[in-house]
Sequence to fold (196 residues):
Amino acid sequence: PSVGSRPVPSGARARCARLARGCGGREGVGAEWVVCRRRLRRELVWAAAWVSVLGQVLGCGRVGGDRAGPTLVFLHEGLGSVALWRDFPGSVADVTGRPALVYSRTGYGRSSGLAAPRTPRYMHDEAMITLPALLDALAISDPILIGHSDGASIALIHSGSGIRPVRAGGAVAPPASGETSPVSGIARAERAARCR
Fold:
């Protein structure tokens, strides 16, 4: 498992694997957060864990969890994960003095694999079902959603749904609808990768 762009220390790796196995079939957070020290600009400490939500195990990273106030929740792009955010969430958390959560959606990063192909509604399902369940599991009641690409669309759909209050949001390059060109390009790349 990794937090940001660096791997979890080997001693914590076995604990991470036990947590991932241990939270299967239960809703909520694994037995504990695995603390992974990572040097960012101001000695921030990342905590990595798996959270079981709606039968899915999601890989998460947190920074500044002991801070009070609204939590920055980072939602990655269509081909992203926790690791691809790199130092950005920690830097924003550091500058704003807010706690931050980064997670990989099902099928990405270290989270559970997909049980079925994505449908055109997947962003709505993530925004109106999975994201609220994750926020509830982690007791995040006052989120500030920050999304990029698909994550931005999910943040906007969630915010507009009125399911729960959202303190604020930031959307970077949200696709307005399912774009056929990138989708067909990704499908071609997947087929080419299977042929190797």
